[in-house]
Amino acid sequence: MTPILTVLICLGLSLGPRTHVQAGHLPKPTLWAEPGSVITQGSPVTLRCQGGQETQEYRLYREKKTALWITRIPQELVKKGQFPIPSITWEHAGRYRCYYGSDTAGRSESSDPLELVVTGAYIKPTLSAQPSPVVNSGGNVILQCDSQVAFDGFSLCKEGEDEHPQCLNSQPHARGSSRAIFSVGPVSPSRRWWYRCYAYDSNSPYEWSLPSDLLELLVLGVSKKPSLSVQPGPIVAPEETLTLQCGSDAGYNRFVLYKDGERDFLQLAGAQPQAGLSQANFTLGPVSRSYGGQYRCYGAHNLSSEWSAPSDPLDILIAGQFYDRVSLSVQPGPTVASGENVTLLCQSQGWMQTFLLTKEGAADDPWRLRSTYQSQKYQAEFPMGPVTSAHAGTYRCYGSQSSKPYLLTHPSDPLELVVSGPSGGPSSPTTGPTSTSGPEDQPLTPTGSDPQSGLGRHLGVVIGILVAVILLLLLLLLLFLILRHRRQGKHWTSSPAQLPMPRKKTSMLP
């Protein structure tokens, strides 16, 4: 057989069978999966192939590996382009394409590939946003997917969107663990940004781990910020409960509370606007040291994915986290006249970087001052004055260390500050201890002087003046008597010289 004949025979054998169904005469069909292409093991899914009007039959195939399950699909479903899987397993995972054809037009092109992924093969990874899941509109954010197992592949999926997931190889950062970094953005409030990530082995790229917990990005706009307050107060003891109240007059229907540094939002609450006012109450507790930190809240309307500007930050402080005790004392005393100055002194034997002063029932944030080291103690002086009746009340102080600024010591014993009125009478009786300082703190009160009220000090001054006047009068009286005595002495001394001399007798001669 000549070489030319051999070539012609080969061409005939290769082209002949395909002349009837040559691809390219029909547009390629569309292949998709319902409810999605990333399916949890054991869940149902249906692959659908849709072609043109001249379609007489559909064909579905898996690349690189034959899918025997396709041959078991009833023909009436295949003719409609439907390929259902009642309960998906690892055997169904893979990369699929479909095509269609007819006797007159031949075979279509193959569809774009569909990657059918089965999840649940491994433990779930952790997904976080760096530096925070709170992002300004138009900004970018880094999503970080971590696993304690050494996987070499990760996928990031947008929740609710049927599109091919963004994939990125992991970057090992510690022995026995792996990480992948995904850049997302610029974000906009036109839709919600919900993500999950998965881990997989590159040898089985369509068998993924369990999904990470859902991560939502909070896209901020410029609408009016809400207000954030706390009841009963920002300082709370372990095991207690507190309520953070987020409110606004902008008519927001939804509020979210976020703690700085957390992976996601603590709570999401809805509130119905009433007369333009709306509020959501977030209850936290029983609290532990992990609750300490800085909180903000945001508001949004139901029909918008855009969140408001953040509220002003609110610090939640957890007391009772250090063994060191603090003491609180006052100079010159716990009872002071209106208009005078006082100094509250907070001290600790152990190291504290800052001290906080609180007033019972006050809405203001705690007064925080950096400590100084004096007389073998760490202390801070809180000056007040000129005082008014508004300064009267019960005070406590706490200590804090820089490495844990939201964790505090136990409170000092309460100190009752009494401010006397303009008339000199006290505005209220002293009901608490005059000082919480121990014996080592006694130098704060001058030796030999007891704390007195403003009236007592005024009476002391008046008595002193009266005593001085009396002493002056006595001194003047004594001086008067001395001068008078001297005058009388001179009078008695000069009197004998004035006595008449006796007459000399004249003798008469006989």
Summarize the structure.
The chain is built from 3 helices and 36 strands.
Report on the structure:
The protein is mainly beta and 510 residues long. The chain folds into four domains: 20-119, Immunoglobulins (Immunoglobulin-like, Sandwich); 126-219, Immunoglobulins (Immunoglobulin-like, Sandwich); 221-317, Sandwich (Immunoglobulin-like), CATH 2.60.40; 326-444, Sandwich (Immunoglobulin-like). The chain has three helices and 36 strands. It has helices at 3-15, 75-78, 454-494; strands at residues 23-26, 30-34, 38-40, 45-50, 57-62, 82-85, 94-102, 106-108, 114-119, 126-130, 134-136, 141-147, 153-158, 166-168, 178-184, 193-200, 207-208, 215-220, 227-231, 235-236, 242-248, 254-259, 267-270, 278-284, 293-300, 314-318, 326-331, 335-337, 342-348, 354-359, 367-370, 372-374, 377-384, 393-401, 404-408, 415-420. Strands 1, 3, 5, 7, 8, 9 and 17 form a seven-stranded mixed β-sheet that branches. The longest helix is centred in the C-terminal third of the chain and has 41 residues, at 454-494. The N and C termini lie far apart (229 Å). Disulfide bonds join 49-98, 145-197. Residues 415-451, 491-510 are annotated as: Disordered. It comes from Homo sapiens (Human). InterPro entries: A1B_glyco/leuk_Ig-like_rcpt, Ig-like_dom, Ig-like_dom_sf, Ig-like_fold, Ig-like_Receptors_ImmuneReg, Ig_sub, Ig_sub2, Immunoglobulin_dom.
